[in-house]
């Protein structure tokens, strides 16, 4: 009973200080009399990790003993950000750590800045996965995330002196090491590629397919603990790193080909070296397909290993295991499980397929055609020959069933998992639908489009029940409690307790303060202080002076045509040109504005990169125009990431979520801004719609073409050309005339302007421009009445309970996973 002799860590000031000093000496190997911030950060992180580990072990022990159904969240991306501050809050030890590091002569907030972001994701999908892991841990669900341990996260964005995006590698696991991961040297699986399929006779005398030959690499596990809030429970994300097989290729070694066999070993590590930096755009690279298979192969081997340890029969697998596919990226798990069950475990096809389709569920995050994964059949045949056969068989049996109820050739072609193009393609989304028991979209409108457009024919075959909506949610721990301490404290004071942090519907209780002048003043002062903090960051890092009393208007997200940052900057130019025309008297009526942009473009996305260039060029001109006199500032915050979001989100008066209706599946930053009392200027798209329904239409600025009208307009434009809005025309002319960056620069923007004219304005910037400007005017007018604005801001936060990741995770557990929490004994 050695376990009972373990002494739990103590959280008094002296013990914490002693633990940190001990780690500086014994883990970091530094002299405690000569320390820098980085070393103290690392020692502090290690001491916090010790405390997390206690909870991690307790949780795993409890779950092991109870052996309940477990859920595995398979995601190629986890956009976690920093861990230390989050862990200090969850363990409720931030104050004592602040004092302890003060005793050592350091400031805790400075130390927190030493940590590098774990940026193993592109944007919305990866951050959503991180929020759900936080919620699952907080709610004590027996849920693990599985992902890849990329050595390079999303690239670091630098804006060069010409205003263009430059990408720099994000080697986040630098020589300092990562205190937040536990290497599991003993947890390794082999993953196979290439080779061929042979027929073999098994012990029962049956003939089975067997995948032979090819290359093999090893997957090694690294565990990242995910603390829950106000629970002893601690979650886990298991990340796989590719390693060379321990067995050295002695054949080539003995042939004297020593250097080649060493090179092969290095090649194995390349597999998980870099995160693909594309968001909502497929680039069908071979290495990416190998990453996807490597990921699902290792994860399934681990899941099955654990299942076998629980002494259950295969038929019980779906009662013990739920697997959620975060978009189509892990969809190969479907044919892989079928292969394991049929080829290796010897089940017959139908019994295996019954198990497979009761285990998997699939979340769709986009309807954009260019983002839907399709893999060429020849490539798949080459890399995964047995899986390709299995996909053909899955398709054959599926089409045979469809044919029984409807033999229309057109329909069979439309629902086929194999697209009959040249070369043929595997439609991964269709494979995911056919292999899953439930498919969900991520906001009401999006789930509707999933049913009526994307998977229409599948709804016809399966019936509508298989397709559900689970509106996205965000964790209030990171996005309010941690990022906005002043607002957190005011809310806690007003509501009388911290209960809201895990029961976000409690925020409704703020409604009664919405008209309270004293409360409004406190509320708006906190907003001002958050703007002061952001203004300080901008001054220090970009040397641009912005007045915190201006209206802060923010759009931060990946740069994409469908998100229409282009429309935003065109609106800024319109505003600039109007300011130039005003008299001194008229100027006094103007609400000063700071327009802030941030976000990365995919490295190969030319149009998006031109938008970044345009924003920076406009900023150059506007910010240096003495006649504008601070009434308008434009700021591009480089390298937008989770840690910057934590400073930016609490500082918005307005944030823009202005995608063409029907294109943004949900959005999650919209939720973060509103939770922090920022108003939305947005289109009738994604989760904006449900946010409006929750907070009331008076508290949101909405405009633009509705989703069901978009196709009509596109159709008209195709045949009659684009009618450019007259105000937009003026703006475009000013760009073309060289007002921004001179005549040479103007020609650079030609291709960008062409996206509005030639071949139709696909994203409806012109069609929506007038309504957009009108909505902007309304924002300016409303902001002049501080009390009215304060009321709206309070009602925004008060109405956001629904958008907690806790609610969303519970919906997944109840409606899809059939999962119950395992409460952890707190003693
Ligand atoms: C294969 C290339 C690729 C890579 C990433 C295609 C698609 C993706 C993601 C699905 C893109 C993404 O992050 N989608 C976003 O998911 C969020 C979480 O559900 C939503 O809130 C966003 O609206 C959606 O754009």
UniProtKB/TrEMBL annotation:
Cofactor(s) named in the record: pyridoxal 5'-phosphate
Name recorded for this polypeptide: Alpha-1,4 glucan phosphorylase
Pfam families: Phosphorylase
Enzyme Commission numbers on file: 2.4.1.1
UniProt entry keywords in alphabetical sequence: Allosteric enzyme, Carbohydrate metabolism, Glycosyltransferase, Pyridoxal phosphate, Transferase
N6-(pyridoxal phosphate)lysine PTM positions: 672
One GO cellular component term: cytoplasm
Catalytic activity: [(1->4)-alpha-D-glucosyl](n) + phosphate = [(1->4)-alpha-D-glucosyl](n-1) + alpha-D-glucose 1-phosphate
Source organism phylogeny: Eukaryota, Fungi, Fungi incertae sedis, Mucoromycota, Mucoromycotina
